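Researcher: Structure prediction, please.
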Amino acid sequence: MPGPVARRIEEKLGGEFAPVRLIVQDQSEAHSGHAGAAGRTETHFRVEIVSAAFAGLNRVARERLVQAALREELKGHVHALSVLARTPAEENMSSPSTGSDTGVWGFRHTLKKKG
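Model: Predicted structure follows.
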């Protein structure tokens, strides 16, 4: 069962992008002991999202859209976010699980808190 932060991520991305596929994976356990985790839960996430909203945008622009939708989570609780954002056409062309990639993988983004 997803935690409250994962549910908020799902709700926000679902509402913003009307995805045909959305997977929000909490990877925080693999980062326990990492400075950004500092004993907290739900700090590291991987998001796979397929939406027509990404058509015509490069991977950086797609990442920025996802970050903007999750602005509050990234300012607060979420330490790291990995994003794979594709269009339905790209999703139909290949799948990351097959090892075939169209070069639209997102990049890992870690926010550094000021202060």
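Model: Confidence is low (pLDDT under 50) at residues 97-115.
Researcher: Thanks, that helps.
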